Amino acid sequence: MPSTSATVPSRAAVAGNPSDGFGGAVCSVVLPFFAATATIGLDVVAEPPELVTATCARFAASVGPVGNGVRDDIRDGVGVSIDTSIPRSVGLAGSSAIVIATLRALDQYVGSALSTLEIARLAHQVEREDLGIAGGWQDQIIQSHATSGLMEFGEEPTLTPLKAPDPPIPLYVAWSERAAEVSGHAHSDLRKQRDAADPVWTDLAKQARRAAVAISQRNVHELKRSIDETFDIRRVIMDIAPLQQDMIDTARACGASANFAGSGGAILGVLPKDGPAFLQHMRDAGYDVETWSLM
Asked: Residue 145 and residue 138: Cα distance in Å, rounded?
């Protein structure tokens, strides 16, 4: 049986984060230049990381009588390998990309035809229940659908794809592996301090919806305000590591909007008018940076 591969893009939050674990809303975009690919097959030889092992076990328990993540009749010699370009532990959802890519590859390999939402639920269970990683639904929803959108997290998470702005809006994402942190730590600390009834989640959700409308209307000024105000709210409710704060300050000093792309270690914003000068300034400050257009 031939091997099967599935690729899942990275994602970056625009506004509203981190309200996805508290019934709020988040506007996020997929990043076209970072992705994780899972390959499964009889000729695949790899030592799977814990994420893959847990994903295969959850898939086996949920889909039917399978072993090592695949059906009993084809399991012997089957392996799963991972190839990823997503920077680790900087808030760009690299672990979720690996989990969802593995689920998609397994689903295609055995022909179980899981729906997009079913894959998101399995991925959420792997990370939140099986591995005990604190967090919400943002990564699993946006990456299983592989499209930028506004997510609402009520009893059932929903995704409304963003309306394409015309002309496209130039964005940037900057990151530093020196500022990396385990995302579960930030979310775990937050859960100890706040509950779902805290009005801060309503405030953050408003910023997410505001960003989605601004994108659809190509109102760059409003988009930048929603990005900046999301971080300003976050700074009140969470401790910000000095290097992570420096990334924000460095970008804003150049006239760019800036918000955390996830748990920390990466930031996102609208590319300022003098794009080349901004990019050079960020790189001179020691940060990696990529740009693309939201369309």
From this structure: 11
Question: What whole-number distance in Å separates Cα of residue 295 and Cα of residue 276?
Answer: 21
The model's pTM is 0.92
Q: Inform me whether the pLDDT recorded for 66 exceeds 60.
A: no
Going from the C-alpha of 249 to that of each of 256, 278, 282, 285, the distances in angstroms are: 10, 13, 11, 11
- Quote the tokens at residue 232: 């300003």
Inter-residue contact 214 to 220 (CB < 8 Å): yes
- In angstroms, the Cα distances linking 262 to 16, 50, 93, 109, 177 are 10, 22, 8, 31, 14
Q: Which two tokens stand for residue 295?
A: 């369309």
Return d(Cα 71, Cα 21) in angstroms, integer. Answer: 34
- Do residues 37 and 224 touch, judged by C-beta distance below 8 A? no
Does residue 184 have a pLDDT over 70?
no
On the question of pLDDT at 87 being above 90, the answer is yes
Do the Cβ atoms of 211 and 15 come closer than 8 Å?
A: yes
CA–CA separation, 271 vs 248, rounded Å?
Answer: 13
53: its two tokens:
């092992």
Q: Per residue in 8-49, pLDDT tens? A: 999 999 999 999 989 999 999 999 999 999 999 877 877 778
Q: Which of 275, 205, 222, 295 is nearest to 13 (CA)?
A: 205
Closest CA to 190 of 200, 180, 176: 200
Domains of the chain, each with CATH number or no CATH? 4-160 (3.30.230.10), 169-294 (3.30.70.890)
Who has greater pLDDT, 67 or 149? 149
Q: Are 36 and 144 in contact (CB under 8 A)?
A: no
> Which residue's entry shows tokens 């105000």?
229
